[in-house]
Input
Amino acid sequence: MKLLTHNMLSSKSLKGVVVGYPLKIEAYDVKVTEVEFNPEFIAKVIPKIDYSVLIRAAEYLGHVGKLPGHVPENVEKNTDFLKEVHHALLEVEVVKGDLVCPESGRRFPITDGIPNMLLNEDEV
Amino acid sequence: METPIVKLTDIELDNVYEPSEDSFLLIDALETDLNDQLKNKKPSMCLEIGIGSGVVLTALAMALKKFCSSHFVGTDINPIACRATKKTSMLNKVDVDVVQMDLLNNLHSRNVFDVIIFNPPYVVTEPIEVQDEKLISKTWAGGIMGRQVMDKVFPFITQFLSSEGLFYLLVIKENEPESIIELFKTWSMKGSIIAERKIRGEHLYVLRFQRE
Ligand SMILES: C[S@@+](CC[C@H](N)C(=O)[O-])C[C@H]1O[C@@H](n2cnc3c(N)ncnc32)[C@H](O)[C@@H]1O
Output
């Protein structure tokens, strides 16, 4: 699971959970792979993500690097920033770990990079 | 569009939807659309619900690679399908992030996806068969009119689709494509049939929806 995908996952489907976002990450195995950098693509993705959630996710994994606390202005021309975001969103992957619901503490295991978000019948 | 290599083991064949006529019609429809508009729109986020072997999303990823970068997310209720998709995408040298979930249940609703694809379980069955625990039953059992599973996601599509986003849906005649197009008008979405094919015993359609 890449952090770009994590940015879009929630546990709202759990009974009693109101927002269920963002999910905490407890990672036991993190893989870093090189992905081709496309600045135009990253600039298009930034408005689609919750940047503060990305920062927190990167913190959980120890991959914040030089990511600033806020999205700077004129993102399109800021190659250094785009590269940092690219790395956090696409190059860092959780192979094994847990996603944790922020409200209920319910854990969703990630195995071989695939989070299992399925609930038992009594949880919905 | 190049057809991805799909290699399923015996266990996977028993549990995962094998690429079939419907999968290939969907791929053909996406190929036509690629030339008509997708390559110019450069979708940055693509989602497939119920990826099965991963053949459709992998085909799209392979084709789009030539024009733009995008992020591909696939979901399935079936853990063996999730793994099979990882394998299919790797075998064809593209990246698909897979999450096991029930329909759209665990996606934070935000209008981020430029493309959403769904080839649902569409076969008309007894309602009870939709509840069948067997993973292979979930690939096809659609209940009343074959609509019981797909109908659950329809009202939520607009919450996930980006403003210019496109939703591709595979259905059969018994699902009543025209009535689905009517239904989507309720959510200010216009739809049309962009491909159809008659095979033994099934009349397949690909519908495409976008905001009015
Ligand atoms: C007709 S198959 C299509 C498979 C693949 N997309 C293709 O075109 O070859 C339907 C898929 O939907 C999945 N599915 C069925 N019910 C689901 C649900 N509630 N949530 C997520 N996926 C589901 C099945 O496991 C199966 O992989």
About this structure: Strands of chain B lie at 45-49, 71-76, 97-100, 113-118, 161-172, 189-199, 202-211. The mean pLDDT of chain B is 97. The longest helix of chain B spans residues 21-41. The pocket of S-adenosylmethionine is lined by residues B 17, 19, 23, 26, 50-53, 55-56, 75-78, 81, 102-103, 119-121, 138-139, 149 (CB under 6 Å).
